[in-house]
Amino acid sequence: MKRVIVKSVYDAFDYVMDHYYPYGLEELASLNDSYAVISIQDSHTGGFGFRFEKNLFCRDVLTLYFDDIEKDVEGAVLFDENMARSIIDFINQNIFADTLLLHCYGGLSRSRAAGAFAVWMLGGNNEKYSKNGSYNQHVYTTLMKVYLNEYYKKA
């Protein structure tokens, strides 16, 4: 992957729509990079009312439903190790996409944590993710724990 980008749900939708083209006129798309999407949606609302789908430019989509919490809260879904494995496997499976697009509702907490992890996993500097605010520490810590305990040993 050449880059990892983190956006709000609205900005992610705009990014995807910049790849839109009328049937048979691919050259009219504003953007033509290949991308893979990790779509983090709220469980308590049943998602955001739409799903991203694979197409000419979108190589793959992983949709996860969990809430922006850092400890168990009744009625909410806490990010867990199975979700972390899904993200790690997805990154590995889509390594040849030009862009990894991550989004949650605001693009500030859950997707930012997953983005910081993805940049680190891909060998980049993820310091910018901790500037100008903080990300969901539980998501980041769980991803790191699963990766270091289960994947790093294999490498």
Give a concise summary.
32% of the residues lie in helices and 17% in strands. It is α/β, with parallel strands linked by helices and 155 residues long.
Keywords for this entry:
4-stranded parallel β-sheet; globular; alpha/beta
Number of strands: 4
Q: Under the CATH scheme, which class?
A: Alpha Beta
Helix-strand pattern, N to C?
A: EHEEHEHH
Q: Biggest sheet, strands in spatial order?
A: 1-4-2-3
pLDDT below 50 for ≥5 consecutive residues: which ranges? none
Global mean pLDDT: 93
Strand content: 15-25%
Describe the protein in words.
With 155 residues, this protein is α/β, with parallel strands linked by helices. It has one domain (3-151): Protein tyrosine phosphatase superfamily (Protein-Tyrosine Phosphatase, Chain A). Helices cover 32% and strands 17% of the residues. The protein is built from 4 helices and 4 strands. Strands 1-4-2-3 form a 4-stranded parallel sheet, with helices on both faces. Helix 3 (110-121) runs parallel beside helix 4. The radius of gyration is 15 Å and the shape is globular. The model has no long low-confidence stretch (mean pLDDT 93).
Q: Could you outline the blueprint of secondary structure elements for this entry?
A:
Elements: E1 3-8, H1 9-17, E2 35-41, E3 58-65, H2 81-93, E4 99-104, H3 110-121, H4 137-151
